[in-house]
UniProtKB/TrEMBL annotation:
Organism per entry: Saccharicrinis carchari
Superkingdom in the source lineage: Bacteria
Residue stretches making up the Nudix hydrolase domain: 8-160
Pfam families with a match to the protein in the record: WHD_NrtR
The protein's name: Nudix hydrolase domain-containing protein
InterPro entries given in the database record: NUDIX_hydrolase-like_dom_sf (IPR015797), NUDIX_hydrolase_dom (IPR000086), WH-like_DNA-bd_sf (IPR036388), WH_DNA-bd_sf (IPR036390), WHD_NrtR (IPR054105)
Length: 246
């Protein structure tokens, strides 16, 4: 908590931070451990990244703060996708213990606003700050705290829908990338495969995909040409629909 500032006990922000490492889609998770007075661990599990909002900040400012606290980065792609307010959000035994330990009433409803964020994993060094924060492949996520499995599921739906209509997949790639890496992003997130030739015909229509006079370096295979996403050109082309039909 920032000194002198008060958190709102009943409004929180949960951020589903997606990252791509060229092979799989990952989500950022935080280890949550509760110990008794003797130091004995009562339980240890995983949560998504999140926190309560300060009384004097907007929910977007809260989401930006949470992401900066974990990554040290501003200007991360961030999308609000849903509000979670079920009266059963906090009914699991470990969640109630955690809230009581944190000085909160587990019988009070906490409303959480869900955001998803997109990061190229190689662009960020996770901040420790007393917590075990790590990337986990989406397919390996088991039970999370609170209703975070539901939040993750809804975030993935929102990401897939957005990906079909706006070029947000570039947010998961380094500044310079190959067409194969771009195709991999779409295939993994949409859980499908594309014919290489057809995919390249479609991306050739993207005026904002700029070919560079550069190729990959330090690879065992034949170096592929590198490309760049131009946000300026994208804005000028009126955000044309990608229209990837699965």
């Amino acid at each position: 908590m920032i000194s002198g500032k008060k958190l709102n006990d009943y409004i929180s922000v949960d951020c589903v931070v997606f990252g791509f490492d060229f092979e799989k889609l990952n989500v950022l998770v935080v280890e949550r451990t509760l110990s008794d007075d003797s130091g004995k661990v009562e339980f240890s599990d995983l949560t998504l990244t999140g926190n309560h909002i300060y009384e004097d900040e907007t929910i977007v400012e809260a989401a930006d703060r949470i992401l900066f606290d974990l990554t040290g980065l501003y200007d991360i792609y961030l999308e609000q996708f849903k509000t979670f307010a079920s009266p059963d959000r906090l009914k699991k035994e470990n969640d109630r213990k955690w809230l009581l330990h944190d000085g909160r009433n587990p019988d009070k409803r906490i409303v959480s606003i869900g955001f998803f964020a997109l990061l190229a994993t190689q662009k960020v060094t996770l901040e420790w700050k007393g917590r075990n924060v790590k990337w986990m492949p989406i397919g390996e996520v088991k039970e999370l705290a609170f209703d975070h499995n539901l939040i993750l599921e809804e975030a993935l739906k929102a990401l897939r829908n957005k990906l079909l209509h706006e070029p947000i997949g570039f947010e998961l790639l380094p500044d310079k990338f190959t067409l194969s890496q771009l195709q991999k992003v779409y295939e993994i997130i949409l859980d499908t495969t594309f014919d290489k030739r057809n995919f390249r015909k479609k991306v050739a229509r993207m005026k904002y995909l700029i070919p560079l006079e550069e190729k990959q370096k330090g690879v065992a295979h034949k170096p592929a040409r590198l490309y760049l996403f131009s946000r300026e050109v994208y804005e000028l082309t009126h955000k044309e629909i990608l229209n990837f039909i699965v």
